[in-house]
Amino acid sequence: MAPGSKLHADPSNKAVDQKTDQGMSGSLMNLTYCRPDIIFRTHLCAISDKSKRVHLSAVKHIFCYLKGSANLGLWYPKGIGFELTAYSNTNYAGCMLDRKFTSGHVQFLRDKLVSWASKKQNYVSTSTAEVEYVAAASCCSQVI
User: Do the beta carbons of residue 105 and residue 89 sit within 8 Å?
Assistant: First the structure.
C-alpha cells in the first residue's frame, strides 16, 4: 500500500465482530517486528476504534499477501555475536505545512536490524543543532 493512502469509507457502514478484527490485527502487529513491509497498512487497520467491513477486508488482504511472500522477512539466526550499531537522522523543518521536523533512528545487531523508529515531532525547532540533539537522545535511549 502506498504511503499516504487511506482506507475509504464503507458506504454500507456495516460493523463486524470487533473481537475477531482486533485478534487478527493483533497477530499482524506481532508480525511487524520481522516484516517491516506490512507495518504501514497494519497500523492503518489497527488504529480504528470501530471495526468496519472495509478494515476487515484490508486485514484479509494483508494475510493473503503474507501467504504469497512467506520467504521474505528479517531473520535473526542463533549464534551471532553482539555488536550493536545505531544510526539517527533528522529532517529539519521537513513538513511543508507546519515546519515541524521528523527524526528517525535504526539499530543493528551485527548486520541484522533489531529496532527502528521515526516520529514527526510536536513542536517547531529553532535550530538544526536542537534537532540533531533530540534525534541523538532518542536513539541513545533506545540503545540503552
Answer: yes
* Its pTM surpasses 0.70: no
The grid coordinates of residue 78 equal 542463533
Distance of CA 103 to the CA centre of its chain: 14
Q: Domain range holding 96?
A: 84-143
Residues 56 and 91 in one domain: no
Please identify which residue in the block is written with the cell numbers 477486508: 57
pLDDT digits (tens, 9 = 90+) for 80-121: 667 889 998 887 766 666 777 777 888 887 777 778 887 777
- Beta carbons of 10 and 4 less than 8 angstroms apart: no
SS3 assignment for 61-90: HHHHHHHHCCCCCCCCCCCCCCCEEEEEEE
Q: How many domains does the chain have?
A: 2
